[in-house]
Amino acid sequence: MIEALSAVAGKPVSRETLNSLRAYEDILRSEAGRQNLVSATTLDSLWTRHILDSAQLVALEPAPGASWVDIGSGAGLPGIVIALLVDGHMTLVEPRRLRADFLKHAVAELRLGDRVTVVQAKAQGVAGRFDTITGRAVAPLDQFLSLSTHLSTKNTRWVLPKGRSAESELAEAGTRWQCEAESVPSRTDPDARILLLRNVKPRGRA
């Protein structure tokens, strides 16, 4: 599994980090019996469907030590997985109390409190500026940009895993937003893409 993680993350993964990811898996599986954090049909393929799928975003961070915000973090996917693999600070944004409580519990159990902040709020109410913005299965791209642009600077990179709808979402968002965009193949799903966006601004704004 270390080889698979290292391959998708684009960096060596230590045995200690693998053990931390396995500990997160145990925490997630335990909580899944109390609330619907991930689809029950994907629990048997948790590593490929969720952990490796999240880990591949690490290879796309703009620079070592970059700050991240994960909007609609839910089960901590991709945010907690990324936090275990990078050196920069991660902010997990989750409006639902039970899920935010789970995230706080997971962060404490994994001893990530010095590098991970959990914010129970809607994205629109969050303050700050981040180097990297991500979110998994939160909203169509047009809506997601509306939720997140106030958290960006001119150098921020959006790293957004998308399914087959990536290109159509990008085209739809293009009617309201202008940006530099790149569509990268997913390393875990041949039908999925990862959208990389920079210099995002509403159309008509200089």
From TrEMBL:
InterPro entries: rRNA_ssu_MeTfrase_G (IPR003682), SAM-dependent_MTases_sf (IPR029063). Pfam families: GidB. Keywords: Cytoplasm, Methyltransferase, rRNA processing, S-adenosyl-L-methionine, Transferase. GO terms for molecular function: rRNA (guanine-N7-)-methyltransferase activity. Gene3D superfamilies: Vaccinia Virus protein VP39. It comes from the Bacteria. PANTHER family: S-ADENOSYL-L-METHIONINE-DEPENDENT METHYLTRANSFERASES SUPERFAMILY PROTEIN (PTHR31760:SF0). Specifically methylates the N7 position of guanine in position 527 of 16S rRNA. This is Ribosomal RNA small subunit methyltransferase G. It comes from Sphingomonas sinipercae.
